Amino acid sequence: MKDTWRFLSDLPDVEVKAEHEIYAILHEHGTPNIPEHVAGGDVGGGRTQAQDLVDAPWLCVKPRISPYQHYRLVHRIVGRPLFKFECTKQLVTAVFDALKAHSHAFTSAKILHRDISAGNIILTDEGSGLLIDWELAKLMKEVGSRRPDRTGTWQFMSANLLQHPGKMHTLTDDLESFLHVLGWMMLCYVPASDRYQAHDRGIDMQVFDQQYQPLGRSQLGGHQKHLVLTGGKYPSLHFRPRCKTPLSELLGELSKPFKSLYDPPTQEARNRVQVRPDHSDRELYRLWDSIDQCDQDIRHLQSPAWFIDEIKKALDKEGWPTNDEADVNLPIASGGETDRQMKIKTSQLQDMHSAIEMSKAPSMKSKRAASPTPEPSAKRRRGTPSASGSGI
Predict the structure, then answer these.
(1) Under DSSP, is residue 113 helix (H, G, I), strand (E, B) or coil?
(2) 3-class SS of residue 223
(3) Could you read off the pLDDT of 151-163 as tens digits, one per residue?
(4) What is the pLDDT of residues 346-391, one digit of tens each?
(5) How deeply is 349 buried, as exposed, middle or buried, from its count of CB atoms within 10 A (0-12, 13-18, 19+)?
(6) How many beta carbons lie within 10 A of that of residue 217, not counting itself?
(7) Residue 143's pLDDT band (boundaries 50, 70, 90)?
(8) In 3D, which of 159, 180, 175 has the Cα closest to residue 297?
């Protein structure tokens, strides 16, 4: 049974469907790989009251506080956490099953999940995956935002959402979250080579944990994700699994379209190649080819189909090990050297990104604003990523 407090919009004429109502729509459209719900509903007398005191004369500040309703939901299946995978192929299979559920919900039921995370994908006894926790899902026909803060779990949110708190949550953000689920799970639970130490893992986890808050602004993050996706090796420059697994290659393939998303050719570059140039002009031909690849990558991000195909191809490959089950006791160092090491990693990523930029044709270089140096986040418990509030 799920016992929670569900969000109620404080905006007029905005109805937020309860999770069991979302499940009813999903089942009506035959959505696969989701749990069967038995019952769900609000608990009587369980509505918060803090929002009713915002206009009290004794309150010095006037924050926007959303109401919440005590709520319970019962599923017919319990399942086990994703971090209890028996091998990396089972991990990828579970994420693949969840992606198919997400795709069907988006294309058939017109529902976007908006909280793809490692905690919201569970394993069945048969080793397949189920996509759960649809409480933040939104019907695509709904327009506008429900509340000002972002939707999702911090470690798995897209770099775009972390860098731009007011951005509308889209399909592309959810697809990036699936990538981050696989990347985060590999760093946290897949045994690595002996050269990969606890402090290395702690540094690499900053890709997912990084947070900073400029004065007077919302909490931000995503700078490390942006750097890794545009100029580094996702999710880590140094991680090597103890057992060779196609998961590493799969992460590289799935991350490629996001480089085009976050580092597209400039309009000036596009203006130089209105039509396909002759092969004799090598510079222009390379420029045209890179722009064509960028446009193809962006098309991949507008539908789950390409991601489903890539994961299916990876699962069909030979060479998946059977002895690389999750290790829930892998050490992650925080504090001490981590701050210094993290700055070194940031510098390495920036140097790699600069080298890639310099290798491009001059007209393709993008002007980038400097981002603040990320601050190290507090040590977190394993398997319990911190969650940002649900929102837009």
Answers:
(1) coil
(2) helix
(3) 899 999 999 999 9
(4) 555 555 555 545 554 443 333 333 434 344 344 444 444 544 444 4
(5) buried
(6) 9
(7) confident
(8) 175
Helices assigned H by DSSP within the chain: 19-28, 88-107, 159-163, 171-189, 198-204, 206-209, 223-231, 246-262, 267-272, 282-300, 305-315, 338-359
- Maximum separation of any 2 CA atoms in the chain, in Å: 76
Q: Which residues contact 58 (CB under 8 A, 6 or more apart)?
A: none
Is residue 138 predicted with pLDDT exceeding 70? yes
The mean pLDDT of the chain is 85
Q: For residue 184, what are its two tokens?
A: 């985060």
pTM of the model: 0.83
Nearest to 170 by CA among 193, 189, 190, 145: 145
Q: What is the mean predicted confidence (pLDDT) over 225-239?
A: 91
Which residues, other chains included, contact 218 with Cβ-Cβ below 8 Å and sequence gap of 6+? 149, 165
- Angle at alpha carbon of residue 277, lines to 272 and 283, rounded to 5°: 70
Residue with tokens 């327009």: 143
